Amino acid sequence: MNAPLTERPPSNFDLDRIRAQFPILAEPVRGGRLAYLDNAATTQKPDAVLAAIDHYYRHQNSNVHRAVHDLAERATTAYEGARDRIARWFNTAREEIVFTRGTTEAINLVAYSFLRPRLQPGDEVLLTGMEHHSNIVPWQLVAKENGAKIVAAPVLDDGSLDFDGWLARLNERTKFIAVVHISNSLGTVNPVEQMIAAARARGIPVLVDGAQSVAHLAVDFPALGADFFTCSAHKAYGPTGFGCLVAKREHLDAMPPWHGGGDMIRTVSFEESTWNEAPYRFEAGTPDMAGAVGFAAALDWIESVGLEAIAAHEHQLLVEGTALLAEVPGLRMIGTAKNKGGVMSFVMTAGHAQDIGTILDQYGVAVRTGHHCTMPLMTRFGVPATVRASLAVYNNRDDIEQLAMALRKASRLLA
User: Dihedral sign, CA of 373, 377, 383, 387?
Assistant: First the structure.
C-alpha cells in the first residue's frame, strides 16, 4: 500500500490526453508557458470535476435533508451519493465518512471530540518530526489543556523516519499517535502499516494524515488498520474547502459533537438537546454540497486514469527531475529517502528560497517556497526554508526541464 511503483507507466498511458483535460495548464503566465509544480499545495482540476460542480449548481442546487421539493431531493441524492462514492474509495462503510472542510478540520475534530475527553495529566501524544503544523497544533492545544505532553520521533538525515527512535518512544504514557502518510515537505512515505501494527499491539489509537497520499496511493481503510484517516479534496484534483474524516464507527458513536447547529441534532428544546447519529452529528449547518459532488467526481477521474499508472508516471518524473536538479550548481536536495513520493525540496547556495522562487516565477515555473507549515522540520535540517517542486499526474518532462533551466538562470542571476 505504501511504496510508489517504480516501473514505467503502461503503454496506453496518454499524458497529452490527460493534460488536455486541465484547462488551466494552457493558461499563459508571465507571457510564456506554465510549468505548474505546486501540487503538494493544491492540484489543478480536470474538466470532469469542473463539469460536475457546474452541473450541481445549474440543475441540483438546494439545501439537503430538509425539504420535500424536487430540487432538495436532487441535492440530497447527489450529496449522499458522493458519500457512498467516497466510502467505496476507502473500502469502508458510508457511516464512517464524516464530511469536513479538509484535513485540518478533520484533525481538529478528532483532537477535540475524541482525544480531549480521554487525556490525563502526564499522558503523551506521539508525533514525528516531519508533521505539518495542522498535525501538531491541535494536539498541542488539547495536551496543554489537560496537562499532557507532545513527543516527536526524530527524522534521519535522508528525511526518513527514525523508526527505532519512534518505537523507543512508545510507552505506557502514550495515549494517541498521529503520523503523516507522505511528508508534504520531503515526499517521505512513512511506514504507516508497521507503525499502526506496533500501536495496535499496545492498544493505542492512530490517526494518519493522508492529505498528501490520497491522490497517489491506494488506501483501504479497514486493511490499513488506522483508527482515523484524514484527507482534503483539493490535493486530489477536487475542490477547495472540502475533505473528510474516515473513522472507525465505534469511535464516532462514542464521540460527542464539536460543532452545534442544524442537522446535527435529533431533538432540541431549551432544556436539553439530543444528537443525530454518526456521521451527521459532526456535520452542523448547511454543508458544502458542491464540494462533495466535486470530490466524488475527482475520485472517479483518478480511477479512470488508474492509481498505479499515476504512481508510476510520477515516480519516473521524480527520478528524472532529481537527476536534472543534481546538475544545477549549488543545489542541495533536502529529503532523499528511498521510499519517496513526488516532491523535490531543495536549497541553493545562490540565494534564499524566496528569491529563487521569485525568479522561477518569471520563467513560468510555479513552485512553493518557505517552511511549508513544517517549521520543526526546517529547524531539524538547519534551513529557514526550501524551494519545493511537487508533481501530479499532468506534469511532464517539459515541466521539469523548464524548472532546471530556470534554476540555472537563477543561479547565475544571484551569483
Answer: negative
Residue 5 included in any domain: no
Please indicate, yes or no, whether residues 56 and 68 belong to a single structural domain of this protein.
yes
Domain tally, the chain:
2
Residues 152 and 68 in one domain: yes
Q: What is the CATH number of the domain that holds 28?
A: 3.90.1150.10
Residues 239, 378, single domain; the answer is: no
Report the number of secondary-structure helices (H) and strands (E) in the chain: 14, 15
Q: Are residues 291 and 311 in the same domain?
A: no
The distance of Cα 362 from the centroid of its chain, to the nearest Å, equals 28
Q: Which of these is catalytic: 15, 93, 373, 383?
A: 373
Assess whether 373 carries a catalytic annotation: yes
> Does the reported pTM lie above 0.90?
yes
Identify the CA nearest to 125 among candidates 189, 197, 33, 206: 206
Distance CA 99, CA 106 (A): 8
The answer on 189 and 90 residing in a single domain is yes
In a domain, 2, yes or no: no
Q: What is the pLDDT of residues 340-385, one digit of tens each?
A: 999 999 999 999 999 999 999 999 999 999 999 999 999 999 999 9
Query: For the chain, how are helix, strand and coil distributed in percent, rounded to 5?
Result: 40, 20, 40
Q: How far is CA 358 from CA 362, 366, 383, in A?
A: 7, 9, 18
d(CA 276, CA 378): 43
DSSP E strands in 51-148: the ranges are 97-100, 124-128
